[in-house]
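Hey, quick one: can you model this chain's 3D structure?
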Amino acid sequence: MGHRRRTIETLSVVVLLSLLALPGSVAAQSANRELIDGLEYQLLYVALPLTLFVLLILVYAAVKFHNNDDPQPTTEDPALEITWTAATAIILLFVGLSGYNVLINPYVSPSQSADIDHGQQELDSFADLPETDDREVHVTGYQWEWQASYPGANITTEDEIVIPANESVTIWLTSEDVIHSLFVPALGVKQDAFPGRYTRARTIVYEPGRYNVVCAEFCGAGHSWMEGEIVVLEPDTYEQWLSENEGTVTETPQPS
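Sure thing. Here's the predicted structure for all 256 residues.
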C-alpha cells in the first residue's frame, strides 16, 4: 500500500509540473512570432495529453505487475495493434500539416534568394532586386556590424534597423565578407546573409519598441560582439524620421 501511495504521489507531481510548464498567454510581437508560437501551442496541447497517458499506463503496469512471479507473454490483439498504428499515423499527419502550414507562410519562408535574375543574370547590387509591395530595408552584414540603408531615402544606420510598425516589411540581406545571420529572437525573424547573394526576411511588427539583433552564424573573432537593434516606430514617426534625416548617416530615434 505504501509503495502504491508513493507511486500515485509521484504521478501527481509529474502532472502538476507539466501543467506549470505551459506557457503564459503573452501577446506575440510580430506576425512571425505569432505563427511560431501558434505552432508550438498546437503541438504542446497534443503532446501533453499523450505524455500523461503514457505515464498512466507505465504507472499502472508498474503497480499491477511489480510482484508478478510468473510473467506471461503478451497475448496478440490485432484490433489494439491496428488502433495504435492508426492513432500514431493520425498524430503524425496532424504534426506534419501543422508544421507545413507555418513553413509555407511568406513571413516564415519568403522567397529566399534573389541572386539570379530570370535564372541567368547575377545581381550586382541592391538596386537590381525585384520590386515588392512591402516597405524595404537593405541590410549588409560585415565583421562585425550591421549597416542598413533605406530605398528612396539617402540614409544609412549602423547596428540599428528602423522599420514602421503594423506594416509589411522586407529586409534584404547580403554580406561584405563571410556568412552572417540576422536573428531577432523576440520577433521570430532569422535569415542568413551570404557574400555576393541577396536573401529576404519579412515581418509585420505589432508593437513599437527596440528589439535585440544578434548574429546567429559564427563569423570570426568578434562574432559575440555583433549585435544591433530593430527599432520599430509608429508609421507617422517613421515617415518623419525619413524626411528629417535625408542624406545622413544618423542615429535612430527612440520609439514613442
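One thing worth noting: Residues 113-121 have pLDDT under 50 and may be disordered.
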